[in-house]
Amino acid sequence: MTPEGFLERCPLLCHVGPIGAWEGIQQLGFRTASQLIADADLTEADRVALMTLPRRHARRLTVRGVEVMLRDQGPLFARRDLLTIMGDGLTVADWVRVLNGRVYLFAHPAALSKVLDKYVERDGGQELITFNRRKLLEIYRSKIELATQNTGAVARVAGPQKFRDTFKSIGLFPDRTPSEVTIVDGIDDLSVVATVERHLLGAKTERLPI
Asked: Whole-model pTM above 0.90?
């Protein structure tokens, strides 16, 4: 896929976080789960567990005095023995590290709307961070990796589903719509953020200052 093809295939690039997510991002940067776990106030045993085991439930952490939340990885628990879906000699811990090492973006209005509505209804509110697509591509092209599947879920098929090349760079990705857009190692330059909106259940959307 070419860079222009990527922009055509991905009409938007957004991230959905809980209320307070943007304030935390302004203080800490747009960190991956791995980076937040590494800097959090945790015992070493708890840190290793979070780095290598799927999260059945969401987990709140304190990082440099800032409270952050890691979303759950519940869909992975659909398969009792996760090792059966690993290919290329990957272990479950390997895959959890892969998942934890990136920021995930929505690239399509339909998928975004479905998840945003679900989270707002469940939690009462969410913050929607929308990126300048072209600027994000210019600055982070080398760190953008795409996948043709929901990498944090288990499909109802037999055999391995997760491989070392599940995530591909833009140049190696086929010319098709990606199921996932990720940024490896997070985002340091917040100038790529275009808008931040707070969506509250039963209330008017609020634009937050950036």
From this structure: yes
Q: Which of 108, 48, 99 is nearest to 76 (CA)?
A: 99
For 109-167, the pLDDT digits (tens) are 999 999 999 999 999 999 999 999 999 999 999 999 999 999 999 999 889 999 999 99
Domain boundaries defined on the chain: 3-16+79-208
Q: How far are the Cα atoms of 2, 6, 59, 90 from residue 178, in angstroms, in the given order?
A: 13, 9, 28, 23
**C-beta of residue 107 within 8 angstroms of C-beta of residue 12:** yes
What single string gives the DSSP state of each residue in 28-52? H-B--HHHHHHHBS--HHHHHHHHH
Rounded to an integer, what distance in angstroms lies between the CA atom of residue 181 and that of residue 169?
Answer: 10
Helix axes 44-52, 92-100, angle to 10 degrees: 90
